[in-house]
Every structure is written in C-alpha cells, then in structure tokens.
Design goal:
The complex is a heterotrimer of chains A (100), B (371) and C (456).
Chain A lengths: L1 E3 L8 E5 L2 E5 L5 H7 L6 E2 L6 E2 L12 E4 L2 E5 L9 E7 L9
Parallel strand pairs in A: 2-8, 4-8
Antiparallel strand pairs in A: 2-3, 4-5, 6-7, 6-8
Chain B lengths: L1 E2 L2 E4 L3 H12 L4 E4 L15 E2 L9 H25 L10 E6 H19 L7 E4 H7 L7 E7 L3 E2 L2 H14 L3 E3 L7 E4 L2 E6 L2 E5 L2 E3 L5 H4 L10 E10 L13 E3 L5 E3 L14 H14 L7 E12 L6 E4 L6 E5 L7 H14 L21
Parallel strand pairs in B: 1-12, 2-3, 2-13, 3-9, 13-19
Antiparallel strand pairs in B: 4-8, 5-7, 6-7, 10-11, 11-12, 14-16, 14-17, 15-16, 18-19
Helix pairs in contact in B: 1-5, 1-8, 2-5, 2-8
Chain C lengths: L1 E8 L3 H12 L4 E4 L24 H4 L2 H9 L3 E3 L2 E7 L3 E6 L2 E12 L3 E3 L12 E3 H11 L1 E3 L3 E6 L1 H12 L6 E4 L4 H7 L6 H19 L4 E2 L6 E4 L3 E6 L2 E4 L2 E6 L1 E3 L2 H5 L4 E4 L4 E4 L12 E3 L8 H19 L5 H28 L4 H4 L7 E3 L4 E2 H10 L4 H8 L12 H12 L3 H4 L11 E2 H6 L6
Parallel strand pairs in C: 1-2, 1-6, 2-3, 6-20, 8-16, 10-11, 10-16, 11-12
Antiparallel strand pairs in C: 4-5, 5-6, 7-17, 13-14, 14-15, 18-19, 21-22
Helix pairs in contact in C: 1-3, 1-9, 4-5, 5-7, 6-10, 7-10, 9-10, 12-14
Classes of the chains: A mainly beta (100), B alpha/beta (371), C alpha/beta (456).
Chain lengths: 100, 371, 456
C-alpha cells in the first residue's frame, strides 16, 4: 500500500504482480513494485504461514522473498524491476517438481 | 565441594545421552560442559541414525549400532513424553546411492561381506537397480547406477536431540555445569575430583565424554582416548515441500523441510573453516544424484570436526588403575545416542562395562611387542 | 581467478572514498557491492536523484561521490554479492548467478550500518517497516506510504525521514518518540559546545521544528509500543494512547553491519555507548586479521561524513602497506582527515547519549514477542533455553533455531544476545557473538556445482 508521491519520476517500467499490471520508475525494486501494486503482504512463511511484507528494503531481513520470473526465493528488494518482469508472492515452503 | 554419584565431562550428544541415562537410573549426576565457543562436534552432526555403513570388518560395531537403532524409537518416545520435544526420528530404512557401475559393484561386495560377517546376528539388505530405485526416490539422475538399502536406517534432528537430552537430564534433577574446561583432576580409585567453573565437585564415577578434549583428559585417569579431528562440511537448503521420503548417506530432508547435503572427510587438524572446493564437491554429487536439487537455495552451511578414533570405531573403556573412570568416544553421536542412554549408562551405574564392549577398548591400539 | 591489490566490499561513502583515493594513489583497486548502483544506503539511488528532491540537499551531496567513482580507475562491480571470504585474502562473489574468486592482497570491509531491530509485539505484521525502508522506497521508487502512517522511535533519522515524507506530500499522522526521559539528563552533560558540534545540532533542531510546524503531532516518552492487526497492521497502541494506522515506521538508531567480520571471526567488542557489537580496530581501521581493515559505519556509527573520512584513512594505510607511499606521506595526508574526524566526535557522543535505546528495545519484556523473524522464535523460548543451560548465541541457536534462517542472525543476533544476557544475568559483552557462515547470501546448489573452480 504505497503510492507515488506528487511530482514522482515517471513510472515507465511495466511489471506484472500476481497478474496485475503496475508501472514503477526505473531503478525501483521488485519489492517496491509489489507495494505499489497495492499488496500488503508479499509472502507467507514456511514456518507458520504468517503473512509478511518487506521490512528493511536493503537485503538484511529476507522478509521480501518473492518469486521473480519463475525463480522463487529471491530477495525482491535487491532485484531491479525490468519491463515485463513477472512477480508472484511466495507462499510457504518451496515447491519443486522432481520429475518435470 | 559438592558430591555426586557420577560426573560426566562433556555436554555433547555422547555426554548428555550418558548423563540422561545415569539420571534416569537414579544417580545424582553432574554434567560438566564448556562454554558457547568450543569444538562441539554435536552441533555439526548430519542427523543420520545410520546402520548400513557401520562395521565392515568389525561385526561387533555393526551389532552395537544395530542395538542402538533398535532402542532409538523408545528413546525418542521417552524424550517426547518427558520433555515435550519431538526429536523427529523416522526410520523408513535408508539408501546409499551409487554413481556409476564401479561404485555399485563395490557397494554390493561390501554388503555381501557384512552379511557374511554378521553370522547368526544377520544383516538384511537389498541392492537396488535404477528402475526399482526410481520408484523409491523421485527424479534420480542418469549417473545413479543403483543403491544399497537396509531397513535399519533412519534419521533424526541432532540439535533437537541434544536439547531434549539436556532438558530431560535437568528436569530429572541433573546438574548442568557449563563454562568449564577441565584441565586437571584428582583421581583415585572410585574417587574423583574436578574443578568446575563455580567450585569443586567429586564423585565415585567419572565418564569422559569430552569429544576431542578426551585425548588430553584421558591420561589423567589412566585412560587412553587417541581421538583426532576429522573435518566434515554440510550444506543446508531452504525449506521445501516434502520430497524425500527416505534418507540417503549424503542427502536427507528434515522434518522442517530443509534438505541437508553432505559430506566430506578432511584431515586438516582443528580448522573449522569452510572450503568452497569441498562445498562444491558436495553440491556436485548432490546434483548428480538428484538433479532437481539444483534450483534449491543453499541457505547456510558449516564445517565441524568429527571426533575420530584411529580406526573409526568407538572407544569405550574403563580405567584399570582408577576403577570408576570410564570414557566414551565416537563420531556417531546421534546413531549411538540410544545405546549410550539405554545400554552404556546402566553399565556405568552398575560399576563396570559389559564384556561385549571389550573389543572397543583402546587396548586394541597397543602395538604388540615383538615376541 | 582475479587478482587485485586492494578489494573493497561496499559502495557507500566509506567504500567509495577509499576506492577512489586508493586508485589515485596507484593501487589496483576493486570495489564490489551487491546493490546495482553506488551510494550504499545513505546515498542509495543518488545518481537518479533530481534537484529539488524531497530528500534534501544532504542526500544530493552524495552525487559527486558516485560521479568520482565512475570517473576513477577503480574496477567497480555492482550487483555483486559476497558469499564467502577467507582470512588470507580470497573473496568469493556471485553476480547474476555466476560465481567468481578474487585474490586480494588487502581487503577493506565497508559494509555500513543496518537498522537496530525493534522487537515489539506485532513487528512482523505487513505494514510495519523500518524508517530506513520508507526512505529507501522514496529514494529508489518515489513511493510514499498510503493511508495513515505512524513513526515511532528516536534518533536523527526519525525526524529526517519525517521531514522528507512531509516534503513528499505524506506527512505522518503522529510521531511517537521513545526517548527515555533519563536520556535528556545524560545528554546534557555531553552537549557539544564548540562550533563544530553546534552547527549540525542546530540543523537537527531545525529539522524537528520543521516537522512540528508542518502540523505533525509528537508524543514524547512513549513506552509499551504494540502493533495490532490480523493479517496486516490495523492499530498502533502504546501506554496511554492508541491510533488506527496502516503503516508503522520504526527506528531506534542504526548499528554496524558486522556480518562479514563475524564470519571472519575478527575480534569484536561490545560498545556500551552505542549498544552494539563492533570490530576492534586501530586508528587506521586495521582489524585483528593482518590483511583486513574496516571503515565507515561498519566500524562504529558516525555518519556519512565520518565514513568518507575513515575510508580515506584506510586507503592511505593500504597504500603504505602495499608499498605505494611511505609512512611519512601517509601520516601527512592523514592529518587534516583526523582533524575533521575529531570535530565530529563531540556531536556523536551527545547523540549516543540522547538517543540511547531503552532496555526493552534490546531485550523485549514480553515473552510472546518474536525475536527471530525467520524461524519465528519468541523471547520466551530463548529465555527457557537459556535457563536450560544455553550459555551463548551458538548453543542457543542449536536449541532454538534462532539464527538458522536466511538472515543468519543479522536481525535477531543483537536481540538474542540481549535476551540471553538478561536471562543469564550477565553483561552483553560477556555473551559473545554468533558465527555466520558461508554462503553469506543464498546461492543455489546448481550455481555452486557449476562454478568455475580452477583456482579453488
């Protein structure tokens, strides 16, 4: 739940967050895109399923883990949003298909 | 000076299992331990309760290990009941994966040997070819030629085990005395005194279970514990949904969902540093075994020092000069925890080791004089 | 394997200043940083900043630093994270999924500062972030919190960010200042009276005044802070007050980011003034390991200007140790730098005393409060394990899982140490530190398996 400030940089980078299209300025992180798209939480913990959102925005807390372009478990605050990037929330423990 | 019925030196998996057993047998026991920063082999353990690899050429070790594995479910249940801590023990049987035909042949021969050596005690195993293995383990890699399987193997959470043993010990009235490194002791038959951090303690029985520290401590009690460090490294992944129903010697999935990858055997003295080359070797073997592991993130890793006797087999001994002094040394603190709590500790309480443990005495290292 | 003379980790003011000076002095210098552009956190995204930014002139003053880095001969590696380092000078880094080994004759850790954890009830709820995080969202994405926002805590950054948010059109609904009343008395005795300390002090006061005159209410001496909500933040409650809120921004100062230093097992001391662990350093930043130095906030919290200056000192020392200048020249060049550093010190003492966190910030009283966010371990669980005999953070990790999550103790380490200290009735200085291990940041099994290792 974040909004652009008045007189913000033009938000020219389109990304898709949980199927929702949102634009962010160049240099914004994937985590910022999730917050800009109106989501409160970005993941559910594998320990208890608690909802979490980015806390530190600088790569220390690991609460911003998200699936980016199909790769889960990425620190989304450390990944710069690129045009067409697909970001999904990370729900619980990692799903792996051993025999794709 | 505080008096106890028994003093155990060393609060790792070996010491705490023995102390737990002694306390359970009604002995007032003091468990002496170092501080937060110590070698602590127990904190580095992989967590296997493993039988199939033990005792090739030494059937007494296979028997002792099997007996421990049999006692394990009961120990786990008792710990849960007494402390509320679930140590995560599961015993679905275990696999030793082989890459390539040579490894599989060598493994097959080893299993055959162990079965022959076991005599009437028996040793049940199966050699699995790829196809059958693929049904038990998802997504095995093309390099995997097969595996050996025995029903005796399982795994548990070593740290939960340590926690539970400590808790069970303390809650039954045991005294835990940390921040003590024992340098000197006064030893007399059935009368031992040790300086702990907060004062001197004495008991008619002492058990040296101080891991690598035993090498220096043992002579004080006219015992011999020639253990040396052997480094092992482990990688741990992020939590994943349950994927691996069976543990293997170098890959297992924990109850929490993390997947542990091991291992290495490095002769580097007391160096607990990590080596990327070794970490990579572990990662490579893991990926060859189960290619789908590639995408999992390694979240942490460590290096720890195993307590390694010269032939890899445990050393159990009692002092002849100072009756009442015992020592226990091994690198399989998880696997043997049940034996230590349920079989070894009662021997200490009764005053002497069972003759079935004679072959584990350090006397086996004495070089016979030329005759 | 890449060989360099001087490898610097961290492209904040300390790292950039060290790198550019070192390169000027002729050292073959590499600067690695996990962020995609220079500036660290304090000058994050400064290259994209526009004049008139709500972040203000002090932030924009970082732009020339970044420009100097770009113009220098430093081999600058952005987007490059450190996952292991060996005491003899080898760094193992990863960039875009590929790993690389760097062999350096000397290493400088300029890893900066992190927010002190503020473990209050509900601090893991979506909607609760650090004040620094809000500032980063403003710097990097021009985003401000939507809805009702509360700021809580103390320290210069609190009011600075409040002012920046006001300027960005998102004034906080209230500021809850947690400065314990006793701090004012303590700080009074350390008031910086010489002009060097007075100017920044006045600037700070003006910031506070500006925020208040913008109509932002302030409550002082706030205790008992709670964040309440179901799936996300709904209310903020404190002793004697409460307010419905969508965002809670927390701040209780910053502490050195000691993660790499602890992994190297450098000697660390507990600083009783700044209430944090910091590496033991000589006046040039030399640590207890011969080829490793630390500069900037990673050594002790002193702000951006002091960071820049300490980076320069480390570069001078490196230049001497690596044979590029002699000791006389090192000392001659260092003199004005030390004079400038000395001028900052008085203000720093004052701020340390004024904004000393309450004891409950270090060790939360309520047993239910989560202290390890990754593994969701409560303060009560830590206390019970301590009573059982866990004598330090490493035993405690074994018993409770604190520190086993991906953050490897970065966030929970200080809190766990303080809770342990209380439970064992010992000073924190005696408790000891946790031991982070490689990989410092996660790497996939595949990336490790595939890494080029001719030189491993």
């Amino acid at each position: 739940m974040f909004r652009p400030r008045p007189d913000a940089m033009p938000a020219t980078v389109p990304v898709i967050v949980e199927g929702r299209l949102v634009h962010v300025p160049p240099g914004a992180s994937a985590a910022a895109a999730v917050l800009a798209a109106g989501f409160r939480g970005i993941r559910e913990t594998p320990v208890s399923g608690s909802k979490r959102a980015p806390y530190c925005m600088m790569g220390v807390c690991f609460d911003c883990l998200a699936e980016i372009d199909g790769v889960p478990g990425r620190q989304s605050c450390m990944v710069e949003a690129q045009a067409g990037m697909r970001i999904r929330r990370q729900i619980g423990a990692r799903h792996i298909d051993p025999t794709p | 000076m505080e008096r106890f019925d028994a003093i155990v030196v060393g609060g790792g998996l070996v010491g705490s299992a023995i102390a737990f057993g002694l306390g359970r047998a009604g002995l007032a026991t003091a468990l002496v331990d170092e501080g937060d920063v110590a070698f602590r082999a127990s904190r580095g353990n992989f967590g296997l309760v493993w039988v199939q690899s033990k005792g090739d050429g030494a059937p007494h070790y296979q028997r002792w290990t099997r007996r421990s594995a049999e006692e394990w479910p009961e120990l786990a249940a008792e710990l849960l009941d007494r402390t509320g801590i679930a140590v995560g023990h599961r015993r679905p049987g275990g696999l030793h994966l082989c890459l390539g035909a040579d490894e599989l042949d060598e493994r097959r021969r080893r299993m055959e040997r162990m079965q022959r050596q076991s005599g009437n005690f028996g040793f049940e195993y199966r050699m699995l070819e790829r196809d059958e293995l693929a049904g038990m383990l998802p997504g095995i890699g093309p390099a995997v030629s097969g595996a050996s399987w025995t029903p005796y193997d399982g795994h548990a959470n070593p740290l939960a085990l340590l926690h539970a043993l400590h808790k069970g010990f303390v809650e039954k009235g045991g005294r835990y005395l940390p921040n003590t490194t024992v340098h000197e002791a006064a030893a007399a038959p059935c009368d031992f005194r040790i300086s702990a951090a907060n004062g001197d303690i004495a008991a008619p029985r002492v058990v040296l279970a101080a891991g690598l520290g035993n090498a220096g401590l043992a002579p004080l009690f006219a015992l011999d514990a020639p253990v040396r460090p052997q480094r092992g490294q482990i990688l741990v992944t992020e939590r994943a949904r349950p994927l691996l129903g069976l543990p293997t010697t170098t890959i297992r999935q924990t109850v929490e969902g993390t997947i542990m990858l091991g291992d290495s055997q490095e002769d580097v003295g007391f160096d607990t540093g990590q080596k990327p080359a070794v970490m990579q070797a572990i990662a490579r073997r893991a990926v060859l075994s189960l290619p789908w592991l590639r995408d999992l993130q390694i979240v942490r890793a460590w290096a720890a020092l195993r307590v390694m006797p010269p032939d890899g087999l445990p050393i159990y001994d009692q002092s002849e000069r100072f009756p009442g002094a015992f020592t226990a040394n091994c690198h399989s603190g998880v696997t043997l925890a049940a034996a230590h709590a349920n079989l070894f500790a009662p021997m200490i309480a009764a005053g002497g080791l069972d003759p079935s443990l004679d072959l584990f005495s350090a006397r086996r290292f004495d070089v016979p004089t030329a005759s | 394997m890449t060989r360099v003379e001087f490898a610097i980790v961290g492209a904040g003011p300390a790292g950039i200043a060290a790198a550019t000076l070192a390169a000027e002095l002729g050292l073959d210098t590499m600067l690695v940083d996990e962020q995609g552009s220079p500036g660290g956190q304090i000058y994050r995204a400064v290259e994209r900043a526009r004049p008139g930014s709500p972040l203000g002139p002090d932030y924009l003053a970082g732009a020339p630093l970044a420009a100097a880095l770009r113009a220098s001969r430093v081999e600058y590696r952005p987007g490059t994270g450190l996952w292991h380092v060996e005491p003899e000078g080898r760094l193992y880094v990863a960039a875009a999924g590929r790993t690389e080994t760097i062999l350096a004759r000397r290493i400088l850790l300029a890893t900066g500062a992190i927010e002190r954890p503020v473990p209050i009830a509900g601090w893991t709820l979506p909607g609760v972030i650090t004040v620094g995080a809000a500032q980063i969202l403003l710097k990097t994405a021009d985003l401000v919190p939507e809805g009702r926002m509360v700021l809580a805590g103390q320290g210069p950054l609190l009011y600075l960010v409040a002012q920046q948010l006001v300027r960005a059109g998102a004034p906080p609904a209230v500021i809850l200042e947690t400065t314990p009343p006793a701090n004012y008395r303590q700080a009074l005795g350390a008031l910086p009276l010489r002009s060097a300390g007075v100017r920044p002090l006045l600037k700070g006061l003006l910031t506070i005044l500006a925020v208040r005159s913008a109509g932002v209410p302030v409550r002082r001496g706030v205790c008992g802070l709670h964040a309440i909500g179901g799936e996300s933040l709904e209310r903020v409650v404190w002793d004697g007050g409460e307010i419905a809120a969508d965002h809670l921004l927390l701040h209780e100062g910053v502490i050195p980011n000691v993660q790499v230093g602890l992994a190297l097992q450098l000697r660390h001391d507990w600083d009783e003034h700044q209430l944090c662990w910091r590496p033991a350093l000589d006046p040039w930043g030399q640590t207890s390991l011969p080829c490793i130095a630390v500069a900037g906030d990673a050594g002790s919290i002193a702000g951006a200007d002091a960071a820049r200056l300490s980076g320069q000192l480390a570069a001078l020392d490196a230049a001497m140790l690596l044979g590029h200048i002699d000791q006389r020249e090192r000392d001659r060049r260092a003199q004005p730098i030390r004079a400038a550093l000395g001028r900052d010190r008085a203000l720093r003492h004052f701020l340390d005393r004024l904004y000393r966190p309450a004891r409950s910030v270090l060790a939360p009283d309520d047993d239910e409060i989560v202290v390890c966010r990754c593994e969701e371990v409560s303060a009560g669980h830590v206390r019970r394990a301590a009573r059982l005999g866990a004598t330090g953070p490493n035993q405690l990790k074994a018993f409770t899982r604190c520190g086993m999550g991906p953050c490897q103790g970065r966030v929970c380490g200080p809190v766990v140490a303080a809770v342990l200290a209380d439970a064992l009735d010992k000073p924190i200085a005696e408790i000891g530190t946790w031991r982070p291990r490689a990989p410092f940041k996660p790497v996939t099994v595949g990336a490790l398996a595939d890494a080029e290792t001719a030189d491993w």
